[in-house]
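From the thread on structure requests for the teaching lab: each student submitted one protein with a one-line request. Submission from student K.M.:

"Model Sulfurtransferase from Telluria antibiotica, tokens only."
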Amino acid sequence: MQHITAPELATWLADPSRPKPLLLDVRENWEFETCHIEGSTQIPMNLIPIRVSELDDGQDIVCVCHHGARSMQVAAFLERNGFSNITNLTGGIHAWAVQVDPSMPKY
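Reply posted by the TA:
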């Protein structure tokens, strides 16, 4: 798996020459409702094994959680299941709120 910082992800998302990744937010519903990166797809971590077929194993996927630990576990699971373009957001949504979007609620 690869790792990406919040500022690097922001640059990627703002670059019209690069295909957008699937932002896979693996946090719980209440966390996602509190704050999320625009355009994210939410599948809570515990549902990934039963919903993995909804994901395209050829697409770039950036896994997101609160601080980066749960998303790293999901990224590893996806790689074990044949996904090859997996990246984990280092520091999670908290890093995004601190480094990219200070107006985003923090919890």
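TA comment: The helical segments are 6-14, 29-34, 48-51, 69-80, 92-99. DSSP finds five helices and five strands in the chain.
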